[in-house]
Amino acid sequence: MVDLNSGWNLSFAGCGFLGIYHIGVASCLQEKAPYLIEGATKLYGASAGALTASVLASQASLAQCCEDVIEVAKEARKRNLGPLHPNFNLVKVLKSGLNRDLPSDAHVLASGRLCVSLTRVSDGQNVLVSEFDSKEELVQALICSSFIPIYCGLIPPSFRGVRYVDGGISNNLPQSELKNTITISPFSGESDICPRDDSTSFHELRFTNTSIQMNLGNMYRLSRALFPPETKVMADMCQSGYKDALRFLEENNLLMLDRPTSGPAMLESPPTTCCCKPTETTQEWVLRRLRLLRKQHWWLDEQIDLPTPIKKVFCEACQDKSGLYAKVSEMLPVRVASYMLMPYTLPVQSAYSVAQRFVEWIPEVPADMRWLCGVAGDMYQQAWKGAPANSIGIRYTPIAELANYGFFVDNANVINITHWKSKILISIHVLSMGLLHLQLPC
């Protein structure tokens, strides 16, 4: 039972494209228990969790946030290599979306309440940032918290002159000393709000403060964190987040029946504006709903609890009419031909992308070059002093030596990951898992 008498916090775990799960959770809290958001002392977040926490702290629109996530996922999926294609610039897309959707006074609303988890590049330590002097600083902190090395780029972004990368590398589920912190994660485990998988596995993986049960469901979720799924799957994840949050509220007697208005972010609209035509008869409506349940729009059934604005976003995303070029490119012969021509087309596209990014990089060249020179100097000093061979190379070790690389197995079969080498190995493994699940159109 959660005791809210002494205050409480909300903490959103980093999860990449699984952040659509956080939107489902946040929409449920706004609709069923808005006091949990309005009265929370702190809103913590790392990576994608920080993006959702910033939307709640700045009182932005969750429906618009959901629409942006779907658009980014579509943009990542429409190329052969998905988000790894050189023409896909995740940092640029995130920055433009945040500048567009966050209100002008977002930094005022978020300061002192929103805590963004960052990983400092110089020493790998975790930093929680909660004060922002301008909207640009808030956006830059969110970009730093979402920057995955190599996946998003080679040179990490800076915040107030210091280089930071994804906050999930050092603390993926930040918490404070306050006892009541409601943790939210799209991975099944010991978080307060998380999926519940039917698994007999008692093994648990603790990755930078995040509890992840070792089962097939979480393996699939990990593979989709960096490689976005289809719109239908994302709608299912959003609905899962809503249901898990509703179950948490019911189990802890936190459900507010006579709730006040949830504010401008989730304004109620007539239910007929989602997908139903106002003039259709009851029989036509029932027949159409049955067709939706049998086909790809099953998640638009009235039994689904998502708020109407969120339903409308998924409805419009599914009904998006593609042009002639998109339809032709989805044909199997065209897809096979595009993969066969990739050795010839990819270098041209890469050269164009590099030239475009270089032009955008010119204003930041002096600061980045100073940082690169500093890194090169540090590496030279370490090499001149003679670092041990084991500190540079990574070798296979027996289970008894796993502690040297940050893996600690306790009596409860819980694997704790603390060393930065282990975190990099896990990240590389997740990337390889995602590549195996790639089923992308041209």
From TrEMBL:
Enzyme Commission code(s) on record: 3.1.1.3
Keywords noted in UniProt: Hydrolase, Lipid degradation, Lipid metabolism
A GO cellular component annotation in the UniProt record: membrane
Location of the motif GXGXXG: 14-19
Top enzyme class: hydrolase
Motif (DGA/G): 166-168
Entries under Pfam families matching the protein: Patatin
Residue numbers covered by motif GXSXG: 45-49
Name of the protein: triacylglycerol lipase
Gene3D superfamilies: Cytosolic phospholipase A2 catalytic domain
A Gene Ontology BP annotation from the UniProt entry: triglyceride catabolic process
Gene coding for it: pnpla3
Sequence ranges assigned to domain PNPLA in this UniProt record: 10-179
Taxonomic lineage from the root: Eukaryota, Metazoa, Chordata, Craniata, Vertebrata
Naturally occurring in which organism (per UniProt): Sander lucioperca
Catalytic site positions: 47, 166
GO molecular function, one term: triacylglycerol lipase activity
